[in-house]
Amino acid sequence: DVKVTQSSRYLVKRTGEKVFLECVQDMDHENMFWYRQDPGLGLRLIYFSYDVKMKEKGDIPEGYSVSREKKERFSLILESASTNQTSMYLCASSLQGLGGGYGYTFGSGTRLTVV
Amino acid sequence: AQKITQTQPGMFVQEKEAVTLDCTYDTSDPSYGLFWYKQPSSGEMIFLIYQGSYDQQNATEGRYSLNFQKARKSANLVISASQLGDSAMYFCAMREARGSQGNLIFGKGTKLSVKP
User: Fold this and answer.
1) Between chain B's N and C termini, which has fewer beta carbons within 10 Å?
2) Rg over CA atoms, chain B
3) Residue A4: strand pairing partners
4) CA of A88 to nearest chain B CA: how many angstroms apart?
């Protein structure tokens, strides 16, 4: 089975800190994604990447950046954490394509609290 | 306009009964895929079922079935014989063949609570 691993389950950071959220997948998937999840808002796409060193902005990229130096690893960076970035962050990966086999596999999520 | 609409923020169902979670979608792409995910309180998203826009039959996976009504742009999830472990958030999602690199677009979710 595909496994997507997020480095931290819970994280507490101070306002203004630089925060790194790491995500690693082990099935050679081309696509990787970062979402944030907030009650009543569902999942919103922050950034995604369809190849090494490639990145594309999602719906809410402001305040975030990403890095994909290796195919298996996709990092989300909060350059200067703010309290409104307190959220659940979900990483996912997928093969390229449309069909049922190309759904997403998610990590367990990181609950980030910025104080 | 929302691409995926889940109109039920929360639902209750009695254990062992069937329940339908609603999902409507909006797309002009003739080729697309529809997905349902379950998210228990632990937080991880679990893939449940997939329906392709060209699939002739409704998808089924164990106790889950997808009631696909293409003309109505509806993709409701039916869970038969509900169990306590079905209590979770459920998300409907769509992937279009063109645009946005084929990314999944999610609805806002429905919280299902199964009563003993």
Assistant:
1) N
2) 14
3) A25
4) 9
Name the 3-class secondary structure at A41. coil
Q: In the predicted model, what is the mean pLDDT of chain B? A: 92
Q: What is the mean pLDDT of chain A?
A: 91
Q: What is the DSSP letter of A108?
A: -
Chunked into runs of 10 residues, chain A (115 residues) has average pLDDT values of: 86 97 92 92 91 91 96 96 97 74 83 97
Nearest CA to B18 out of B83, B66, B76 is that of B83
Integer Cα distance of B58 and A37 in angstroms? 29
Q: Across the interface, do B101 and A100 touch by the CB < 8 Å criterion?
A: no
Question: d(Cα B52, Cα B68) in Å, to the nearest integer?
Answer: 9
User: Residue length, chain B?
Assistant: 116
% of residues, chain A, pLDDT over 90: 71
